[in-house]
Write a structure and sequence with these properties.
Elements (H helix, E strand, L loop, with lengths): L1 E6 L17 E8 L2 E8 L11 E4 L7 H5 L4 E3 L6 H9 L4 E2 L3
Parallel strand pairs: 1-4, 4-5
Antiparallel strand pairs: 1-2, 2-3, 5-6
């Protein structure tokens, strides 16, 4: 499963989830059997060639229409900011699905 994250840094240990309009990097995280397999960073979303399964945003007020138009499910992480916390919340189904 590939998860798309708008981030403020390209360091997996210190990066924080940020609004899509303020993202300095886009992280594509590969998750297999509940574990992070790898994470690739991109300067722009247009550089990403893989089809992502889901995007995680920090707020329901974030600009999410491009993802909805591409039929990419949008999950909201209202309190989680670092990558480890976001993935834990994802695995335990603690994120909210945004309905268009």
């Amino acid at each position: 499963m590939l998860i798309l994250l708008p981030l403020n840094s390209n360091d997996i240990d210190t990066a924080s989830l940020t609004l899509s309009t303020e993202a300095k990097f886009w992280g594509v995280l590969e998750l297999k059997e509940g574990k992070i397999q790898k994470m690739d960073f991109y300067k722009t979303r247009e550089e990403i060639e893989d089809f992502v399964d889901v995007v995680i945003l920090p707020s329901k007020n974030d600009y999410c229409w491009p993802f909805i138009e591409e039929n990419i499910p949008v999950l909201i992480a209202p309190t989680q900011r670092n990558i480890e916390d976001i993935i834990e919340a994802f695995l335990f189904k603690e994120l909210y699905q945004l309905e268009a």
